[in-house]
Amino acid sequence: MSVVLFDTPGPRARRRVAIWSVVAGVLIAAVLVLAAIRLNQRGIFDSNRWDIFYEDTETWEALIRRGLGATLRAAGVAAAISLVAGAVVAVARMSHLPWVRMPAAALIELFRGLPVLLLILFIALGLDASIFTAVVGGLVLYNSAVIAEILRAGIQSLPGGQREAALAVGLTQGQTLRMILLPQAVRRMLPSLVSQVVVLLKDTSLGFIVGYAELLRTSRELRDFFGSRYIFSIFIVTAVIYIGVNYSLSRFATYLERRGSPKAAGGPPPLVVQEGRNV
Question: What is the pLDDT of residues 149-165, one digit of tens each?
Answer without folding.
Answer: 998 888 888 887 777 77
